[in-house]
Amino acid sequence: MRLLNHESLSQSSISLAGPAPAKANMNAEMPRATALPPMRFAIIVPVYNHGGTVGDVVRAIAGKFVDARLIVVNDGSTDQTGQTLVNTAHELQEHCPTAAARLHIITLPRNRGKGAALLAGFRAAAAADCTHALTTDADGQHLIADMMRVMQVSRLFPQDLIIGDRQMDDHAVPASSKKGRDLSRFWLWLQTGQDVPDSQCGLRVYPLASTLQLGSHWFKRFDFESETLARHAWAGMAIRSTPITCLYFSPTERITHFRPFRDTVRGVRLNVLLVIRRLLPIPCPKCRPKPTGSTDTGVSSPAYLAWHNRHVWKSLIRGLFTANLKDSRLPTAVGVGLLIGFFPAYGLQTLLAVYVARRLHLNVAVTVLASQISIPPLTPFCILLSVEAGSWLLHGHGLSLASLDWRHVSALQMLRTFLAPMIVGGIACGLVAGTVGLFVTRNIMARVKAARSAAAN
């Protein structure tokens, strides 16, 4: 039996990546004293083919959380999950009727994905007058102590989304899992400007009133959890992290439904669509409620309105040059700037670079500087390179000016010969130049960092 308590750490099949610190990372910010409604929690457990573990998970949660409603969503399981849940409910009814009264089992007729299961649980929790929903996995990956810790942070910040930050420093955690977490962290920062250390963790607390106001999501499977973080941030909500224990099961005991190729493609598709949505000048609806009794309007005056204060201007200009220069942010600014430099919007590339940099939280100065690759006297060479590349991509051969009869050339022929190849070739050259610039800048930064580290030692 795999229990969700600290005794399970003694099992040889589980590795512990260090104890989670007791103090949560709450961004050094204390909540404002406001009149808020009482918090009522629901614990939602989506399950798909975890019949061997879900019974232990349900019993452990029901025994420890005596005031929370427990909602288990059976997402069309095809193994013994359904029967296990029935047996567990009967067992609780026999030995602990109060816990059985708090248990609610939802069975979906077919597998619809984790996102659909979570949404079904959210709606059931809201119908039961719950204000917050704690989500956890059915495989026993999260400890009861960590659930209590995340719930406690939510009590301090009831209007924010709280997510666990798994401490993955243990050697038993695969490098691929760490890289995947870092990559997801970068994408979410690019899309929202919020730095979430572990955006893939399933141990979360959602404020239901705000979450259910977000509207429909594009995707309803594993990618739902990444999409909903971006939508919460766009809606004006803060995403706070608190350290939790990382349990990593051995390959023989671990149950996963992750399909490497298909789910990786889905993740790339999701992140690209979220970035495109972020670039569109369409405001997102705000769903963060105003606390009862609060006099804060939530609107601060822009700094540039203090035009007479030279210190304000100095701070703004300094921010253009110093913000977002660490880790992968500087290489991304270089890559995006080079892409914009080849983009066939000559005369508007600087404005476009400023807009994109601001929307994607990139360093404005670096992005604009990289986009100047197409300024005179380099403009003719960039145009010629774009047209030549586009001609190869569209027609399978290079540009042939000698074959044109310039006396009888038509507008359609000019479009086919120059404009269409310039647009296609400009985008292609920009993608190539941006990718090369990104990796070259990363390599240079890694070498500089290694040199400084060696000098310090």
Condensed summary:
With 457 residues, the chain is α/β, with parallel strands linked by helices. It has 2 domains: 268 residues, Spore Coat Polysaccharide Biosynthesis Protein SpsA, Chain A (Alpha-Beta Complex); 147 residues, no CATH class.
- Quote the distance from N terminus to C terminus: 49 Å
The fold-level CATH name of the largest domain is Spore Coat Polysaccharide Biosynthesis Protein SpsA, Chain A
What percent of the residues sit in helical stretches (DSSP H or I)? 40-55%
Annotation, overall tally of beta strands: 9
Total helical elements: 15
Query: Which homologous superfamily in CATH is the superfamily of the largest domain?
Result: Spore Coat Polysaccharide Biosynthesis Protein SpsA, Chain A
Structure report:
The radius of gyration is 27 Å and the shape is elongated. The protein starts with 13 loop residues before the first strand and ends with a helix. 49% of the residues lie in helices and 10% in strands. The strands form two sheets. The protein has a seven-stranded mixed β-sheet with strand order 4-3-2-5-7-6-8, sandwiched between helices. The protein is α/β, with parallel strands linked by helices and 457 residues long. Mean pLDDT is 80; it is low at 1-28, 30-34 and 289-301. Helix 1 links the parallel strand 2 (41-47) and strand 3 (69-75). The protein has two domains: 6-28 and 35-279, Spore Coat Polysaccharide Biosynthesis Protein SpsA, Chain A, CATH 3.90.550.10; 310-456, no CATH class. Helix 8 packs parallel to helix 9.
